[in-house]
């Protein structure tokens, strides 16, 4: 079993953005590469959960494993992606990042790692009172809780967090967590 696996969630449909956010660019580089490169600063074990249609358009990402959501949870959001990785690849901890945070940096991940402790099921940043469940560390023991949520179709990350032991790390700088959801946000913050 590995100590840490990095997960990039790139399975969303990007409806509000109008095209796959993973392929949007900042400084000529696809958003997904910012997540992959940031995870590589803490682990060489990178798994990308990707929608099958998106995979063929992604840039080359060496030494990363690509998977899709497992049945019967295909298309059920971040919990399905997280569970799909946990079901196929064993690790003690899983560091999760979305594919649409082009300002993320390794400093954030290293802060979260400082709080790794067996008493926590998850370690999450809380930025100006807003939790960040998709920039987080999850312990392997949450796998069964996630499965239970998926089976009951309770797909909210909040439901999961309400039922596990979470360590929240208060941070101030919002920029690393800025996810780009619309073309207007892209024009305002990235261009």
UniProtKB/TrEMBL annotation:
It is an enzyme of class 2 (transferase). It comes from the Bacteria. SUPFAM superfamilies: Nucleotide-diphospho-sugar transferases. It catalyses: Mo-molybdopterin + GTP + H(+) = Mo-molybdopterin guanine dinucleotide + diphosphate. Its EC number is 2.7.7.77. The keyword Lipoprotein does not apply. Keywords: Cytoplasm, GTP-binding, Magnesium, Metal-binding, Molybdenum cofactor biosynthesis, Nucleotide-binding, Nucleotidyltransferase, Transferase. One of its GO terms (molecular function) is molybdenum cofactor guanylyltransferase activity. Mg(2+) binds at residue 100. It holds the Pfam family NTP_transf_3. It is found in: Cytoplasm. Residues 6-152 form the MobA-like NTP transferase domain. Its cofactor is Mg(2+). GTP binds at residues 9-11, 21, 69, 100. HAMAP family: MobA. The N-terminal domain determines nucleotide recognition and specific binding, while the C-terminal domain determines the specific binding to the target protein. Belongs to the MobA family. Transfers a GMP moiety from GTP to Mo-molybdopterin (Mo-MPT) cofactor (Moco or molybdenum cofactor) to form Mo-molybdopterin guanine dinucleotide (Mo-MGD) cofactor. This is Probable molybdenum cofactor guanylyltransferase.
């Amino acid at each position: 079993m590995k100590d840490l696996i990095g997960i990039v969630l790139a399975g969303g449909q990007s409806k509000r953005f109008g095209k796959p956010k993973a392929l949007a660019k900042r400084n000529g580089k696809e958003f997904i590469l910012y997540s992959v490169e940031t995870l590589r600063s803490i682990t060489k074990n990178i798994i990308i959960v990707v929608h099958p249609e998106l995979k063929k358009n992604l840039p080359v990402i060496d030494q990363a494993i690509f998977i899709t959501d497992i049945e019967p949870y295909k298309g059920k959001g971040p919990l399905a992606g997280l569970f799909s990785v946990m079901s196929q690849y064993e690790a003690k901890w899983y560091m999760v990042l979305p594919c649409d945070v082009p300002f993320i940096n390794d400093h954030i991940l290293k802060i979260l790692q400082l709080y790794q402790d067996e008493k926590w099921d998850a370690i999450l940043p809380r930025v100006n009172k807003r939790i960040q469940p998709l920039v987080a560390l999850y312990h392997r023991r949450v796998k069964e809780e996630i499965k239970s949520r998926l089976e009951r179709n309770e797909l909210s990350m909040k439901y999961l967090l309400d039922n596990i032991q979470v360590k929240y790390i208060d941070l101030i700088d919002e920029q690393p967590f800025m996810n780009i959801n619309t073309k207007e946000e892209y024009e305002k913050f990235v261009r």
